[in-house]
Amino acid sequence: MSTSTHNPVPAGDQPMAQTAAQKFLRDAATKSADLVHREIIRKNMESYDAAHMRGRGRFKNWEAARRKCQEIKREAIENLDKYLLQFEEKVTARGGHVFWAANSDEACTYIKDLALSRGVKTIVKSKSMVTEEMHLTPVLEEVGIRVWETDLGEYIVQLRNEPPYHIVTPAMHLNRQQIRDLFREKLGEDVPDADPQKLVALARRKLREAFFAAEMGISGANFLVADIGAVAITTNEGNGRLSTSLPRIHVAVTGIEKVIPRLEDLGTFWPVLATSGTGQPITTYSTLVAGPRKPGEADGPEEFHVVLLDNGRSGLLANAEEREVLTCIRCGACLNICPVYKNVGGHTYNTTYPGPIGSVLTPHLRGGEFEHLSYASSLCGACTSVCPVNINLHHHLLHNRRDFTKAGKDKAGRMQFRMWQKAMLNPRLFAFGGWMMRSSLRLLYRLGLAGTALDPMRAWTRKRTRVPLPETSFRARWKKELGRDQSGSK
Amino acid sequence: MPRKISLFVPCFVDQLQPEVAVDTVKVLRRLGCEVDFPEDQSCCGQPAFNSGFWDEARPCAERFLRVFKDAETIVCPSGSCTTMVRVFYPELVSSALHDEAVAVGKRTFELSEFLVKVMGVTDVGATFPHSVTYHASCHGLRELKLKNEPLQLLRGVKGLKLVDMLRFDECCGFGGTFATKFESISVAMGESKADSIAVTGAEYVTAIDPSCLMHVQGIMGHRKDRAKAIHLASILASEA
Amino acid sequence: MAANNPSREAILARIRAGLRTPMPPLEAKTFTDPIFEPVGDPLERFQQECKANLMEMNLTSDFDGSARVLAQVLASFPAGEIFLQDDPILRRLLESSGAMRETRWSSQGGPREISQATVTLAEALVAQTGSIFVTSACGGRGATVVAPVHIVYATTSQLVPDLVTALRNATHEGKLENNSYGCMISGSSRTADIEKILVQGAHGPIRLVVILEKNS
User: Fold this and answer.
1) Neighbours of chain C (3+ CB pairs under 8 A)
2) pLDDT in tens, C120-173
3) DSSP of C58-76
4) Does C76 touch chain A (CB under 8 A)?
5) Residue C165 is assigned to a structural domain of this protein
């Protein structure tokens, strides 16, 4: 890992190959300056903020709700093997299949082989961030299977051939005219006034054919309920229900950490998830799938498969200090409140999970290439203040930073801070160093060199007036006058 | 018996914004406190700590504990530095010093916290006949849980017209080294904050963290916005 | 297929090894207020929440009243096949309503795409959130989601105050053991994926109609 993560190279001096960190800086710079983007996101988030506050007002004691959810998730994660086995036993007893996948490849292969062996030509998918993590769709399309995203936002970004922008609202970055134009180009149908109602009706019509024709439905899982052995899926649109009702095979894909102990726990999680995700009291369709159709049932899939994906989660589990990161219920609240996310947008993170949870989680799941995400934060702590399961997100960012530097990856940074430390441990050196810095900067600026390559503060002075450079420090004044005068007079 | 206060002056306040500390001394003395400045202090270690260099930050923290060992009450005009001592020192210092860190943390207060919660005053005898809007610095708000104290003090200032800001609790974008390492994001966040300030029409924006104010002033100055940044201590030190 | 799953043991082993070190304990905390305000009158609350959920709530005092409402509702959308959960109560209700429509019953299979509406019973009604709890016993899975109009016939004795109670009951009664599928429905289908503007009628029903008969 080069030092460029921590000493970012200005855009003009890029070497040929671009690291993920360098790409992040470029994209962040572009997006942060994009005022149209800033305005769209600001409006969306304002809408969310208002709904969210209304939603929280429906709770008598929101803090007690957060605490309860935190405790339930901790109970689940601290006994993960036990609850996963209980879940597996119940599902299997009903004729369902549970497949444990160590990594994305194994999971994709299982699903692909299943689809091929069953003659599947068309798949309908309801939203699943885990399948994004796995890059499942290209694997299926490669063998000639048509995959339809059915969540409206996912359907839109699929048509645009881009990844989801946000884990809950995938097409947040687009306005209705852009969506109208997209539908006109890709679906061959126009909605001249770009009325959202009509756009939705058009998407519904198009996807209807897919729902009824598909041989397989793939869903995610918001929760895995251990005591009854069921997959809980929440949607507002109903696409999660159609995908799991009409096709003859249903595959639910999930991370291993999604398990909760009891069905009644959903009595707390459903309202909390909906409130944090969209401000609703509960998501319109909170579905429970316990197995394939039973004899005597009017309809339903003949086959039910649950794919449990590890993909680095068990490694993170082993880190007791960071384990609580696995209690995330993927509500998106931390994304919505994060000022960094609001300015750079979901795509800049260039990885499946953006925002604060993504910044904390990704380096653990995907390794050193994404360390920079933990640094791209002012540590404001807003994320922690809204997390419904009380994950101490910004403190985890600090821990990530600590662990990366401990691994010795930033030699230049370490040297800088060793020198800094020497000055800080020696007050006379500190006072002298401070005086030197102020004096030399004053001279530099007097020579009109602010913002040039010679200005060590140019990353400050480009868009901000320079910091004050007083003649006298506080300690000098204290020594001279303040230390002696104990009266409060002018 | 007058209270004995040991002043904890953030390193960058000492070097770049000394008036914040000068005004802090003025306010405390006006209220009858005896103020001392342990000259051996330097930096609380926050820059190294936030960058992940905990081994390099640790000696600074342990030094702080030594320098302020005998201080009865420590007051600091910065939410982030106070947070460093109270919230993070126990985790940072060696286990042998853990209890001492906790104890020192209990005696360390941010200025508005000290005035309102410890001294129980909200009127410090200040006059500041201007319109002022308040930015809630992140550490003070979320780590020290200071929601009302700065506002109570501002309401106690003669002639001051307090104007509410939208998204007053949204981060200004300073974030320490973040301000230069992720310049574009920091500036965008600062611009959003400057926009919120401009909407209020206030002459001044104030906060308990001098670093926020330095950053926001930089943005507003560059844009030639009307408002000026001023630290809470300087408002409280103002007299007719 | 799942018989050949070599990673299963490896994953379980990694989980067990990882969990040998417990998480640092949480600071003890007590709360005086409950998470939710207790539900007052369940019927009143249910009606309020239905309204907020944009559901059509029709309160009737007897079977005949319910049959009349059903007739009205069936007349309010275009002609065409309707799908009903095959239950003696619904057969009687449909007959009493006098409505003449092409019908398909769940005993014949799932609803067809041409269905204009579905009619089902419910397992329970939840006052806290204005929710209808259904399972695949209510005519199958598609019965409560496929058609543009979903009509639910229920009685006030099916009301429970809150979600936790409903789910506890469902667990004790083995609802997801005896049925492969359940759903807590709290409104008609909607989406806000376009500019965060709420649009009714995404993939599920555009109208959710409840005929709620008061038990004596």
Assistant:
1) A
2) 999 999 999 999 999 999 999 999 999 999 999 999 999 999 999 999 999 999
3) EEESSHHHHHHHHHHHHHT
4) no
5) yes
What are the pLDDT digits (tens) for A115-148?
999 999 999 999 999 999 999 999 999 999 999 9
What pLDDT digit, counting tens, does each position of C41-78 carry?
999 999 999 999 999 999 999 999 999 999 999 999 99
Return the amino acid letter for A321.
E
Are the C-beta atoms of residues C154 and C125 closer than 8 Å to each other?
A: yes
For chain A, the structural domain boundaries read: 3-14+22-47+332-406, 58-314, 426-482
For A218, how many CA atoms within 13 A lie in the half-sphere containing its CB? 29
Q: Tally the domains of chain C.
A: 1
For residue C201, the domain's CATH number is 3.40.50.10420
pTM of this prediction? Answer: 0.94
Spatial distance between the Cα atoms of B227 and B206, rounded to a whole number of angstroms? 10
Which tokens is A151 given? 């969540």
Residue C2 counted as domain residue: no
Q: Which C residues, 2 through 41, put their C-beta within 8 Å of a C-beta on chain A?
A: 2, 5, 7-8, 10-12, 14-19, 21-24, 26, 29, 31, 33-37
Q: To the nearest 5 percent, what fractions of chain C are helix, strand and coil?
A: 30, 20, 45
Question: Are the beta carbons of A400 and A376 closer than 8 angstroms?
Answer: no
pLDDT at A17: 56
Just give the CATH number of A58-314: 3.40.50.10420
Provide the shortest C-alpha distance from residue A73 to chain C (in Å).
12
Where are the domains positioned within chain B? 4-118, 131-237
Summarize pLDDT for A15-55 with one digit per residue, the tens.
445 788 999 999 999 999 888 888 888 888 888 999 999 99
Fold entry, domain B131-237:
Rossmann fold (3.40.50)
DSSP track, A405-436 = HHTT--HHHHHHHHHHHHHHT-HHHHHHHHHH
Q: Are B232 and B207 in contact (CB under 8 A)?
A: yes
Contact (Cβ atoms closer than 8 angstroms) between residue C207 and residue A244: no
Which of A257, A275, A288 to mutate to probe the C interface, most C CBs <10 Å? A288
